[in-house]
Amino acid sequence: CSKTGGLTDLIADQVNGLLYEPLDEKTLSRLIVELLTDEELAHKLAENGKRDAQRHSWPEAASQTLDIYRN
Q: Cys bridge to 16: 47, 48, 63, 64, which one at CB 3.0-4.6 A?
């Protein structure tokens, strides 16, 4: 994921994604190869990404919004 906009608020490098500088094709290609060849890393990123996505689901967002109004 390119380090642009709000993406770095959601993506932690090597935790739930891989970050690179915008327009840095060499790093992007290296990261793609790394992801395709390192099964353990791919699994870790997928699991962490799934966990993080669930925290940002519509039901979770609605629950957090209700909590704000209730407090």
A: 48
